[in-house]
From TrEMBL:
PROSITE patterns, alphabetized: HTH_LACI_2 (PS50932)
One Pfam family of this chain: LacI
Gene3D superfamilies per UniProt: 3.40.50.2300, lambda repressor-like DNA-binding domains
Assigned keywords, A-Z: DNA-binding, Transcription, Transcription regulation
Domain HTH lacI-type: 2-56
Protein name, as recorded: Degradation activator
Organism in which the protein naturally occurs: Anoxybacillus thermarum
Highest taxon of source: Bacteria
Length: 339
């Protein structure tokens, strides 16, 4: 295996000059740079990236924390983030926490031990006070999930508005018995959507019936479970707003299997606008989230923070949401007298 000494011997240059070329030092002539690169190519010499990282205190690697890679929202976010990172010359590693506070803290040690240059948190499993100490080791950017206590840049969506427009759409279809289905109780995203949900109800002089609250629903299987619970109620809801297209698809699948009609017997709204919303029959009304734009912004910001070393500055970047109306809520307007 070729060494830096072999490159120096072939070029007739010093090890110092070879090292400067490898580390892109500005004070090397183009003639010498070309000579060194050609020698490295001829010898098949590959610089030790780990050693260079230790010297430069830079890995050119970012970490993206997500709870579950199989969730289509996070899968799309991963792809968009990797593309954006590559445009900046960075590699991306994925840290799947599976909603575990312990796993999240263990992964944060990647920043502490200088194995990554920065961390993008798409979900948060711990309180900010437990994550804040890691800022001394590098930048942290929140993307999707947020915490008002966090003194770092946050790329987020107006989730209150998202919950509001989804629920108002169901109210405009004539529904008054509307169920709410959400994910993790720790999530500020889910809490904000519920605020928007209740805001829309209050505008129609309606109060939320806690019997219609279904939490900790993430998967298609959870959606099926939620549907069975709704149908077991003596006073059943006629519509449901879910925080996930996966859950919405599960509800629809189970409803159809049990002989119910969508939307005539139950109107369903999802969230994310994933590909599955156009594959089900009926197609799913949902709220579109601009994932690619969020990912690009998060990467742009963290690269800037790596360069400026200004980590503890709270900045909020908010993107709009859009209601996409499809067949799972429209087709025959519901009236309370039909229940």
């Amino acid at each position: 295996m070729a060494t830096i000494e072999d490159v120096a011997k072939l070029t007739g240059l010093s090890r110092t000059t070879i090292s400067r070329v490898i580390n892109n030092h500005p004070y090397v002539s183009e003639e010498k740079r070309k000579l060194v690169l050609e020698a490295m190519e001829k010898l098949g010499y590959v610089p030790n990236s780990s050693a260079r990282s230790l010297r430069n205190q830079k890995t050119s690697i970012l970490a993206l924390f997500i709870p579950r890679i199989t969730n289509p929202f996070f899968s799309e976010l991963v792809e968009a983030t990797e593309i954006a990172a590559a445009e900046h010359g960075y590699q991306l590693i994925i840290c799947q926490t599976r909603y575990s506070p312990e796993k999240e803290l263990n992964y944060m040690n990647l920043l502490k031990t200088k194995q990554v240059d920065g961390v993008i948190l798409a979900s948060i499993q711990n309180e900010w006070k437990q994550l804040k100490p890691f800022l001394q080791y590098g930048p942290i950017v929140l993307c999707n999930e947020f915490d008002d206590c966090a003194n770092v840049p946050t790329v987020r969506l107006d989730q209150v508005y998202g919950g509001y427009i989804a629920t108002k759409h169901l109210l405009e279809q004539g529904h008054t018995k509307i169920a709410y289905c959400s994910g993790g109780y720790r999530s500020n995203v889910a809490k904000s959507r519920e605020i928007g949900f209740k805001k829309a109800l209050s505008e129609y002089k309606l109060t939320f019936d806690e019997r219609y609250a279904f939490r900790d629903a993430f998967h298609i299987a959870d959606g099926k479970r939620v549907f069975r619970k709704m149908m077991a109620l003596s006073d059943r809801p006629t519509a449901v707003f879910t925080g996930s297209d996966e859950v919405a698809a599960g509800i629809i699948s189970e409803a159809l299997a049990c002989g119910y009609r969508i939307p005539e017997d139950l109107a369903v709204v999802g969230f994310d606008n994933q590909a599955i919303t156009e594959l089900t029959n009926p197609t799913i009304t949902t709220v579109h989230q601009p994932i690619k734009q969020m990912a690009q912004k998060a990467v742009d910001i963290i690269v800037e923070k790596i360069q400026t070393k200004k980590y503890d500055v709270q900045e909020i970047y908010e993107f709009p949401l859009q209601l996409i109306v499809r067949a799972s809520t429209v087709g025959s307007r519901f009236h309370e007298s039909e229940a």
